[in-house]
Amino acid sequence: MRLIKTVIELRAILSKAKGPVGLVPTMGAVHEGHIALLKKARSECSTVITSIFINPHQFNIKDDYLNYPKSASKDLEIMETEGVDIVFKPELEEIYPSSYTTTVKVKDLSDRFEGVSRPGHLDSVATIVIKLLNICQPDFVYFGQKDVQQLLMVKRMITDLNIQTNLVSVGTVRDIDGLALSSRNIYLNKLQRQSALGLYCALKLASKLRINGEQSANSIKAEMEKVLINHKLDIDYLAICDPETLDEITYIDKTAIVLVAAHCGKTRLIDNLLI
Ligand code: AMP
After folding, report:
1. 208: domain CATH number?
2. Per-residue pLDDT tens over the stretch 166-198
């Protein structure tokens, strides 16, 4: 496995790399969710690159950026074990020199839910993703369903900007009790960890209600709200949407996606489920 820090070096290596090339973008603090993406990439590609870059522009709160969990040596060990060929871990200046001014915006998809709660966040994600796609020019790029709005936005951007890559989505990896794995889960104390489970409980309830024939989004959301509140979670948003456009729906007559974001103490958690 090679650890590469500059774009020039990476491009030189990639020009001789055996295809197909797969890219797994991450911010490090690797957990089983990331590992599922790495395994999928390894099974489909001859060359697997993973990037580790904590993009400061996608954090709304400076402290959140500065305190974002970092586990560089453990990350590299895991990546080596998972058979990653190249780790691209650039310094901030390599990606955003002081002269940098461009931002990419995916209209509509980045203006709701996460876009409202974290203004500018998804524009910054779109910008770093397109930069990584241009730098690596992968045949396949891997994203988790856990961040479904990000996934759909990247999908839209790849189509709109004629980027020659195939987006592969990987299902959400959960802890044994159902909590979606997230680098931020380490901020949760024991009690908060119990509360956090409310997100999955509420999503499972939505699925159960839907299976039992409920078609009113409002009724399902009302029941979910009770679960979230019982778990002492502070709801940020709760929505039932078309799974492709993320347009909210009121009457459910086909597969829909439930999105939820909530604060658990100071930690903000998101999750989603198709129902
Ligand atoms: P991050 O390091 O948080 O930017 O995540 C890097 C990639 O891993 C993104 O595509 C995420 O959607 C994905 N990911 C994060 N958590 C999970 C999870 N629990 N299951 C599947 N994919 C995940």
Report:
1. 3.30.1300.10
2. 999 999 999 999 999 999 999 999 999 999 999
Last residue of a domain, one of 170, 193, 208: 170
Distance (Å) from CA 33 to ligand 1 centroid: 6
Q: Above 90 in pLDDT, residue 60? A: no
Q: What is each CA distance from 134 to 11, 109, 122, 190, 235, in whole angstroms?
A: 10, 22, 18, 42, 37
Q: Is 172 in the pocket of ligand 1 (CB under 6 A)?
A: yes
Cβ distance 3 to 52 under 8 Å?
no
From 125, 142, 170, the end of a domain falls on 170
Query: 219 C-alpha to center of ligand 1: Å?
Result: 30
